[in-house]
């Protein structure tokens, strides 16, 4: 029996799952043959859309040659080596080292360990505190759960990772003050999503990212950009960090690196930080995953990056930013809607009325169900908003279909 992630299994058991069978572009079909427009690109990941046979062909060819082998120690494979070179050249700081993982949660846990280990190696073992933000989502491993700024995602697990401090998601002065109160010589790193994702799709306030980055630089605190959602085109550039000139010390990524065709994540480590680990005499970094640098997955990533480059999907996403916001804008007048949050990449949220959610906490779930009835697949975010993050290949007709379906669903609720 399949235990679904982030699911009320009593409810799933009562109603049964929606079993999807195939996908093409931005659309999906279930086993009954019903078609849906995928408003979320799976779980923020299907940047190039579904049905890309060249990715499947690249994976099949690599599997026939060498599907996988451990990359521990000095072992490697050609696809992993080529992928590391390619992504390093695309990184916000060229020449960054690429530590490969199996997904976003792996990447966040890896980054947390790297940050603390960095200060150990630099002779400052007292620098252990990690700072997180309200509304933050950093995956569901132990470090990511500890770094959660969504209360429901951390409640019920007892004590996890220690030495964690929390600041408001949109207040750079609070970050500066918190570092001052803790003492910069005790703070190891600051974890920051350039655009808040699962917490509700909150674009950064004007100037916030620039100010937060400078505060960390001035205090010598490592700046970790969590780009698991925003990487590989979704914000109109290869990385949101490039768009906002963040120059992060570490950058976590996943999802769009393969467009979800196979699981992969990574941590990109700026050269000056990586040098501490790579220096002669430092020895082994005792961390890694069975599938780090998996050959067939790396082949999928390479084919996926080929598509993003060839079709200029980063440029397409930059244009979609305004198109998506314009398509959703009329919904802001709907009585069920509090606001539309959009305008930074192909990311948006249709925020349901807070007053109505307070009156009926099940409203977000009902809205998701109503959207499904209208042929739109979406999900409710922590804020009570509906996620809108379609594949970067969506066209004008798809945007119109998306907005119309959302509107009809909201009408049924009203």
How do you describe this structure in short?
40% of the residues lie in helices and 15% in strands. It has 16 helices and 14 strands. It is globular, with a radius of gyration of 21 Å.
What's the number of extended β-strand segments? 14
What overall geometry do the principal axes of the alpha carbons give?
Answer: globular
Overall CATH class of the largest domain: Alpha Beta
* Strand order, largest beta sheet: 4-10-9-8-7-5-6
Helix content: 40-55%
The SSE order reads: HEEEHHHEHEHHEHEHEHEEHHHEEHHEEH
Discrete helix count:
16
Low-confidence stretches: none
Q: What is the averaged pLDDT score?
A: 97
Euclidean distance between termini CA atoms: 37 Å
What fold name goes in the CATH topology slot of the largest domain? Aspartate Aminotransferase, domain 2
Structural class: alpha/beta
Main sheet makeup: 7 strands, mixed
CATH superfamily caption of the largest domain: Type I PLP-dependent aspartate aminotransferase-like (Major domain)
Proper CATH architecture of the largest domain = 3-Layer(aba) Sandwich
Percent in strands: 15-25%
What is the CA-atom radius of gyration, in angstroms? Answer: 21 Å
The total tally of domains equals 2
């Amino acid at each position: 029996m399949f235990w679904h992630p982030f699911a009320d299994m009593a409810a799933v058991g009562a109603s049964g799952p929606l079993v999807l069978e195939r996908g093409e572009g931005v659309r999906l079909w279930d086993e009954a043959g019903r078609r849906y427009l995928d408003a979320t690109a799976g779980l923020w990941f299907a940047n190039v859309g579904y049905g890309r046979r060249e990715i499947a062909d690249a994976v099949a060819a690599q599997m026939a040659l060498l599907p996988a082998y451990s990359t521990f120690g000095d072992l490697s494979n050609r696809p992993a080596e080529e992928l590391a070179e390619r992504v390093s050249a695309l990184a916000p700081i060229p020449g960054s080292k690429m530590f490969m993982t199996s997904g976003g949660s792996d990447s966040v846990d890896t980054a947390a360990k790297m940050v603390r280990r960095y200060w150990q190696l630099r002779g400052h073992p007292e620098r252990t505190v990690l700072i997180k933000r309200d509304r933050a989502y950093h995956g569901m491993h132990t470090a990511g759960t500890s770094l959660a700024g969504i209360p429901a995602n951390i409640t019920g697990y007892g004590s996890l990772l220690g030495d964690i401090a929390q600041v408001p998601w949109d207040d750079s002065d609070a970050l500066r003050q918190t570092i001052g109160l803790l003492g910069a010589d005790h703070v190891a790193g600051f974890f920051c999503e350039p655009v808040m994702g699962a917490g509700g799709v909150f674009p950064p306030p004007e100037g916030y990212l620039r100010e937060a980055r400078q505060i960390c630089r001035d205090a010598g605190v490592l700046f970790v950009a969590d780009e698991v959602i925003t990487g590989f085109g979704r914000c109109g550039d290869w990385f949101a960090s490039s768009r906002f000139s963040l120059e992060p010390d570490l950058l976590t990524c996943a999802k769009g690196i393969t467009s979800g065709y196979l699981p992969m994540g990574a941590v990109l480590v700026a050269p000056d930080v990586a040098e501490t680990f790579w220096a002669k005499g430092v020895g082994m970094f005792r961390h890694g995953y069975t599938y780090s640098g998996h050959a067939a997955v790396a082949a999928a990533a390479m084919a996926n990056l080929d598509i993003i480059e060839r079709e200029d999907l980063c440029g397409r996403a930059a244009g979609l930013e305004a198109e998506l916001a314009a398509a959703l804008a009329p919904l802001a007048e709907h009585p069920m809607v509090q606001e539309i949050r959009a305008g930074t990449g192909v990311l948006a949220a249709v925020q349901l009325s807070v007053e109505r959610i307070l009156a009926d906490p099940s409203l977000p779930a009902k809205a998701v169900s109503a959207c499904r009835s209208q042929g739109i697949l979406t999900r409710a975010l922590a804020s009570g908003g509906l996620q809108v993050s379609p594949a970067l290949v969506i066209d004008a007709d798809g945007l119109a279909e998306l907005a119309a379906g959302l509107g009809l669903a909201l009408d049924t609720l009203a």
